[in-house]
Automatic annotation (TrEMBL):
It comes from Caenorhabditis elegans. Keywords: Metal-binding, Repeat, Ubl conjugation pathway, Zinc, Zinc-finger. One of its GO terms (molecular function) is zinc ion binding. InterPro entries: Beta_helix (IPR039448), Carb-bd_sugar_hydrolysis-dom (IPR006633), Para_beta_helix_rpt-2 (IPR022441), PbH1 (IPR006626), Pectin_lyas_fold (IPR012334), Pectin_lyase_fold/virulence (IPR011050), SCF-Subunits/Alg-Epimerases (IPR051550), Znf_UBR (IPR003126). Residues 586-657 form the UBR-type domain. The gene is fbxo-11.2. Pathway: Protein modification; protein ubiquitination. A zinc finger (UBR-type) spans 586-657. It holds the Pfam family Beta_helix. This is UBR-type domain-containing protein. Residues 115-145 are annotated as: Disordered.
Length: 657
């Protein structure tokens, strides 16, 4: 129609200047509820002076010639909440805006400041602030409250907003609507007291407070909605509220994206949660227990997900990436399920279980993070199983400062520093994992502990298992092979029990014990290593008992001059003994070792050639190259021959031949 009057006349529709009048007309002409109640809210800004309460099943529909109908049909108020749904009505294609009446707020603050009793001022009995007593008796002096605190006492985070939905069986349908609020003390939309709206294609953008709060047993279904650029959280769920969010975008909040606290529940599926100032999702307090599944969580300024203060929750099949800090932070008794998520390319670490945190962490892919894939510290004890932790730029899984828990049946590979690292009193149980192709497979140091059982630890670049600096792990029934260095290295005061392992096919020694270390090796089968089976160069007392050592290249059990190893019932047989055979043939040991190996044998210094204590000369070179010279025995230990390596002024005659 060309004009509104023509349209109204043709359709026989009543026309009103204010929405309150239209609602009143529909209620007065209900005729027993047999007719649909339909209000077209036309293009323009409709200002209300008090809360519009929707108590019947009315339908309110924005009507405009604009392509974007909702932005051209605006319902606004500044003195109280604009809309309150108390029925299962319908609203679509409308912008609802609460604008703070700054002049009114200033008057309230001024009145409160004038009326507030001052410190030391006597207040008569019966007046506000007075103490109980007989008429005429002065009350006890009461310290004055600051105006800001009085204002805080009079504010409610669920009032003075754009829209409230409240009440049992209240299930309005709200579609293609925009909600805005300038109230910093409230959320833009409030859903409470068992209400369960269905909101589709709606927005809460640019609020001075939070986006939407769902509280006190409320629920609802929220589909394809956007919550963005609010100064507080985008979504807040508390007090046994249990909403369902699907395909929503939650981004660029001034605080967390989604905040679940105080028994809050909820289901969040297929949502995009990103670029929030703090965490994308925060769970706080006992019984906070939402489900978050198939969501994309990224570019959080403080991290991805924070779960603390005994909260639980289920986090399933999400993708977390490019967060500034940790992807998932679990602490203070929190006990979530973290399953089948993909956690990658974080600018810090992947998952951090901190300060008595717990949780079941399983079947996740954790890779490409700047620090460790998974951290565990300070009394935390998660169960970490069936994850693939790989390609991290530091450790794969890192236990420290008293962290414990179970690390079971994980695939841990391709991490730059270490597959599994344990230090400073941490004591996890590490069972049935495959730890491979890291720089070091396992590193236990600085008084770390841990029990490693039935793991397959192989093909690591430096050492498969590295124990040092007073660490005391138990290494039991593992398969340890294929290292490009040693199978197990124990050095710098390392200890521990190493028993019933199969240690084979490592590029250097099967087990290497150095520098004041004192492990106990019992019942291991050590074979096929390219250096010796067991090499010991430690002054501390250690036990070698009931080991089978065979088919190792340089020899079986080889001990240095200083060693105090106690050997008992070991079976050493069929070793290739290349070191001993080379000496018997008069060959320089460098021809056997090159610079890649340090064979255990007697080494000497040539006084005549003025070689230093740091230059070692093998027995064959002493007998041939330095024949007739004054020589001095140094010790039996691990060296390659400096004569054969041409590190002395005189060339090695054995190498020349």
């Amino acid at each position: 129609m060309k004009n509104l009057e023509q349209f109204v006349g043709a359709a026989d529709i009543q026309c009103f200047d204010h929405i309150e009048e239209a609602l009143r007309f529909l209620d007065e002409n209900d005729e027993g509820g047999h007719h649909e109640k339909l209000i077209f809210l036309h293009e323009g800004t409709h200002e209300v002076t008090h809360t519009i309460r929707i108590t019947s099943d009315v339908q309110i529909l924005g009507a405009s010639g604009s392509e974007d109908i909702a932005t051209s049909v605006v319902l606004t108020g500044r003195h109280a909440t604009v809309l309150e749904f108390q029925s299962s009505a319908y609203m679509g294609y409308v912008t609802v805006k609460y604008e703070v009446d700054t002049e009114h707020e200033a008057h309230v603050a001024q009145d409160m400041e004038v009326d507030a009793p001052r410190a030391g001022e006597e207040v008569p009995v019966g007046e506000p602030g007075g103490a109980p007593g007989a008429p005429g008796e002065p009350g006890e002096p009461e310290e004055a409250l600051e105006p800001e605190k009085l204002l805080e006492a009079h504010t409610d985070p669920t009032t003075n907003c754009a829209m409230i939905v409240t009440g049992l069986h209240v299930e309005p349908i709200i579609e293609h609507c925009n909600f805005q609020s300038g109230n910093a003390d409230s959320h833009t939309v409030v859903v409470k007291d068992h209400a369960a709206p269905k909101m589709r294609n709606c927005t809460c953008i640019g609020g001075s407070g939070g986006g939407i709060i769902i509280t006190h047993h409320a629920g609802g279904y929220y589909d394809n909605c956007e919550f963005a650029q609010n100064l507080q959280s985008g979504i807040r769920v508390q007090f046994q509220a249990n909403p369902y969010f699907y395909n929503c975008h939650v981004h660029h909040q001034g605080d967390v994206g989604i905040f679940i606290l105080d028994d809050g529940l909820g289901h969040f599926q297929n949502c995009q949660i990103y670029a929030n100032q703090k965490f994308a999702i925060e769970l706080k307090s006992a019984q906070a227990n939402p489900t978050v599944t198939e969501c994309e969580i990224h570019h959080g300024m403080s991290g991805g997900i924070c779960i603390h203060e005994d909260a639980t929750g289920q986090f399933l099949k999400n993708r977390l990436h490019h967060n500034e800090f940790l992807a998932i932070w679990i602490s203070e008794g929190a006990n979530p399920i973290v399953r089948k998520n993909e956690i990658f390319d974080g600018k810090h670490g992947g998952i951090f279980v901190h300060r008595y945190g717990k949780g079941l962490i399983e079947e996740n892919k954790v890779y490409g993070n700047e620090l460790a894939g998974i951290f565990v510290d300070t009394g935390a004890e998660p169960w970490i199983r069936n994850n693939h932790v790989h390609s991290g730029k530091q450790a794969g899984v890192y236990f420290y400062d008293g962290g414990s828990g179970v690390l079971e049946s994980n695939e841990i590979n391709g991490n730059t520093l270490t597959g599994v690292q344990i230090r400073t009193g941490a004591n996890p149980r590490v069972i049935k994992n495959r730890i491979w192709n890291n720089d070091n497979g396992v590193l236990v140091h600085e008084a770390g502990m841990g029990c490693f059982e039935e793991n397959t630890i192989f093909d690591n670049s430096m050492t498969n298992v590295f124990i040092k600096t007073m660490a005391t792990p138990v290494i039991r029934r593992n398969k340890i092979f294929g290292s490009r260095g040693t199978g197990i290295s124990v050095t710098d005061g390392g200890k521990g029990l190493i028993e019933h392992n199969e240690i084979f096919d490592n590029a250097q020694a099967g087990v290497l014990v150095l520098s004041d270390s004192a492990p106990s090796l019992r019942g291991n089968r050590i074979h096929g290593n390219r250096s010796a089976g067991i090499e010991v160069s430690s002054k501390e007392e250690l036990v070698l008992a009931e080991n089978r050592v065979f088919r190792n290249r340089f020899g079986g059990i080889m001990t240095a001059s200083c060693s105090q190893a106690s050997e008992d019932q070991n079976q050493v047989y069929d070793n290739l003994d290349h070191v001993e055979k080379a000496i018997k043939k008069g060959q320089c040991l460098f021809s056997v070792s090159g610079k890649d190996f340090y064979p255990m044998h007697n080494f000497y210094r040539c006084i005549t050639c003025n070689s230093s204590d740091r230059n070692a000369i093998c027995q064959s070179c002493i007998e041939r190259c330095h024949e007739g010279h004054t020589v001095m025995f140094l010790k039996c230990d691990r060296f390659y021959c400096d004569c054969g390596a041409d590190h002395l002024e005189r060339s090695c005659c054995l190498r020349q031949t």
